[in-house]
Amino acid sequence: MYFFTGFPGFIALMLLSELIGKWAPEKIYTLVLPHMKDKAIAEKERICSFTHFPHEKWEVIEGDITKPNLSLSREQLHMLASSVTHVFHLAAIYDLAVPENIARTVNVEGTKRVNEWVSSLPHLQRYIYFSTAYVSGTRQGMIFEHELDKGQAFKNHYEETKFLAEVAVQEIARNVPTTIIRPGIVVGHSKTGETIKFDGLYFMFNMFERLKFLPIIPYLGKGEAQGNFVPVDYIIDATLYLAHADEASGETYHLTDPNPYHMRDIYRMMMTEYLGKEPKGTLPLRLAKWAMSFSFVRQWLRVEKEALEYFECASIYDATNARNTLIKAGIVCPDFRDVIPVMARYYRKHRNDETKQLVIR
């Protein structure tokens, strides 16, 4: 019996679709906020229709991870305790520009509430927690999967609160069978390009679209940092395998690009693919950040200022544990050079869909 938070978010949607297709779950429970219930039911119906999964085997439950007992009734808690074997905790605020109070409430306090509930489940076989590789914060150099607290600072409230949440998960992992997933920056499907939001690396496409009238577009900074961008289908395949592999219990995995390109190369490949031309010259990153400090610039370009930090994030993410485990199932991360054209095609087709654009403040 499978229990998910974070539905109907993109990764949860993809996980559930693949779970149904490959693992034939006996029962699925998805916890959703009351105002998201209609959307969640619509997504459930859509997935059940194309997978032919019986509707009665999937229950959408109203709740709130920031409230005691997840806002579940005594009857619901008893029902779940008697059946749940796998818990996937994905609910979080992923926005790089999220205010601190909101990030702490959802990412930290919400995860602690889920931890408390998970620790009470008598039949639990695995707790799968979605963290991020960027719990490393401002650390530089090689970062290993077994590392967490090295006294690091953080580039934004998202990173800091995900770090604090993972600290809390690590504490209960001594007594609860836990697998921690640390993805890099997730992009769309490597074959279809499908994504739910044009954030993260898609901000570059937004910027290219706005600036395409210019005869010359410069590089942003030196771009010496490695870019860790991974397609969502790799994340899904890897996560579902690790959620069921005995050897993954008690482990932490970097689902990052094992052969990352430098940001300068990624920037050039994206511009060449989307605009058919290469960057010329270099705009110092400090000047780009200064320009992005003005809201009207951010809003016109459709780029969050915080995204620029990753052009100089000199971190290298070792993924030996993930690679050695996943290779047994033939699961490998695609070469990002091959993913960029697929991303560009999908973005070009859907760039005017306002539901896929973040509200930039």
Residue stretches low in confidence (pLDDT < 50, at least 5 long) are none
Do you know the CATH topology of the largest domain?
Rossmann fold
One letter per element, helices H and strands E, the order comes to EHEHEHEHEEHEEHEEEHEEHEHHEHH
Which radius of gyration do the C-alpha atoms yield? 20 Å
Inertia-based shape: globular
Task: Report the biggest beta sheet as strand number plus sense, adding barrel if it closes.
Answer: 7 strands, parallel
> Helix/strand-derived class?
alpha/beta
Number of helices: 12
Kindly give the count of domains. 2
- Note the gap between the termini: 41 Å
How would you sum up this structure, described in words?
It is a single chain. With 361 residues, this protein is α/β, with parallel strands linked by helices. It folds into two domains: 2-186 and 229-255, 3-Layer(aba) Sandwich (Rossmann fold); 190-227 and 260-315 and 335-356, no CATH class. 40% of the residues lie in helices and 15% in strands. The chain contains twelve helices and 15 strands. Strand 4 (86-89), helix 4 and strand 5 form a beta-alpha-beta unit. The protein is globular and about 65 Å long. The two termini are 41 Å apart. The relative contact order is 0.13. The mean pLDDT is 95. One of its GO terms (molecular function) is isomerase activity. Keywords: Isomerase. Residues 5-238 form the Thioester reductase (TE) domain. InterPro entries: FAR, FAR_NAD-bd, NAD(P)-bd_dom_sf. This is 3-beta hydroxysteroid dehydrogenase/isomerase family protein.
